[in-house]
Amino acid sequence: MPERIDFPALLAGHTVVIEMINSGDAGLPVLTQLLRVAQPALGATGMAFVEFGPTGGRVIAATGAAEWALGRPLAVDDPDTVCLLSGPRVRQARVSDLNGKLAGELAGSGLRRMVVSRAEIGGHTVGSLHALYPGDEEPGAEQQGVIGYLASCIGHMYGDQSGLPVHGDGPVVAALADGLAVVDRDGNVRLWNPAAAQVTGRTVEQALSRPLPFPLPPSGQVRDHRMPDGRWLRITSGDLPGPGTLRVVTFRDITDQQRRDHDRELFVAVTSHELRTPVTVIKGYADTLTDHWESLTDVDRRQAARVIGQRANELARLVDRLLSSAAEVGPGDDPPTPFDLGEALRSAVVDLPAELRRRLVLRLPSDLPKALGHRPSLSTVLTELTTNAGKYSAPGSPIEITASGDGHLVAFRVSDQGIGIRPEHVERAFDRFWQGESGDRRGYPGAGLGLYLVRRIVEQQNGWVSLRPRTGGGTVAEVRLPRG
């Protein structure tokens, strides 16, 4: 330790720091430069500044023999934290007098004494400045006076909010719901608030002094970016006052919004595709009847009316599906009650289209237990499953309906002999608007809503529905309900 402080070097170095501030520099670059100036002038082996927030402290700037501690956290209940936040604002201390983990690490690095001063704003502590020494000789009053002065300068920097606080535990920054980061001219993170850690899954320790985990948009612009795990972030950035050496970045998770936007676009695409065919057919036959009524035979007229009726029924059913998918489909507030599943299935079959009824083969045991649920909704479930089976199997091929029960569950199955389902699609098939094929070349019509509605209805009755490939070809849809 020198007998006297090198005041000329300290003043010259401090002038450089002030010029940095006047040129627009702020935050960590200025703070680190201040420590680099102070260390040789004070004859210290290392310098460090600990920033404090509501959840504890963190070493955000360090030089010399203390550089290893950069990023080191101090918990709010750590004995060293308690010691640093109490007692005189400026003092010297033996490292051996501290009882926390950091004190042991300092001693292990050969540092035995320190001069420490809290940086305060209106009595509120924002951090503590440390000059560290290896020997047993006590620093003099001059060292304490200079450290106190420099700590006050740092407190003034915090008062100006010039890129500080850094580790994001300031009460305002910590309360933000959006992720917030400050990056320096090299693109490295200098501030990382708690919301940023939550949104990205990257802790403060993992983020500080490293590049952002996503692209940085130009200042004043917004960018949506998909993360490797599939989530979407909306990112904005802007330059802090000055020549643009520091940039503030905010970001939020918009995955749900992206999904809603995707569903909306898919809804428009699917409905326009599915509505176009019946509307075109209805209009075509209606125009034919209007323009050529006298020249048509009675058979032709009846055929046209029959087609119009069939297509109108398809259109009505599609509209009903769309409305149901947008509403809360299900039994509502009615409590589940026991009902005869076999009788309910036979009744639901009667309401199916004639061409579909002719293909059905019912194999229902006479001693089938009652199910617990909402009987009226079973008609919708069976209609969707049998329609789906008929659509993906050859015309005229059988569609089998079977049922069984055990001590806890009652189940029925709809089996077809069609094209089958790939194992990787057995869950995706229940997604709203999902189609095994896409585009205008789809070989099978449909809005991708039937199975989505079935799953919602069944699960609201504490049951579940599944798909699986059928042995020998085709698909088996199975609905399981609690036993009544």
Automatic annotation (TrEMBL):
Predominant place of localization: membrane
GO biological process terms, semicolon-separated: osmosensory signaling via phosphorelay pathway; regulation of DNA-templated transcription
UniProt-annotated location(s): Cell membrane; Membrane
PAS domain span: 172-210
One GO term describing the cellular component: plasma membrane
GO molecular function: ATP binding; phosphorelay response regulator activity; phosphorelay sensor kinase activity; protein kinase activator activity
E.C. number(s) listed in UniProt: 2.7.13.3
Domain annotation Histidine kinase: ranges: 270-484
Top class in the EC scheme: transferase
Pfam families documented for this protein: HATPase_c (PF02518), HisKA (PF00512), PAS (PF00989)
Membrane topology (UniProt): Multi-pass membrane protein
PROSITE patterns given in the database record: HIS_KIN, PAS
Keywords, alphabetical: ATP-binding, Kinase, Membrane, Nucleotide-binding, Phosphoprotein, Transferase, Transmembrane, Transmembrane helix, Two-component regulatory system
Catalyzed chemical reaction(s): ATP + protein L-histidine = ADP + protein N-phospho-L-histidine
Name assigned to this protein: Sensor-like histidine kinase SenX3
Organism this protein belongs to: Micromonospora noduli
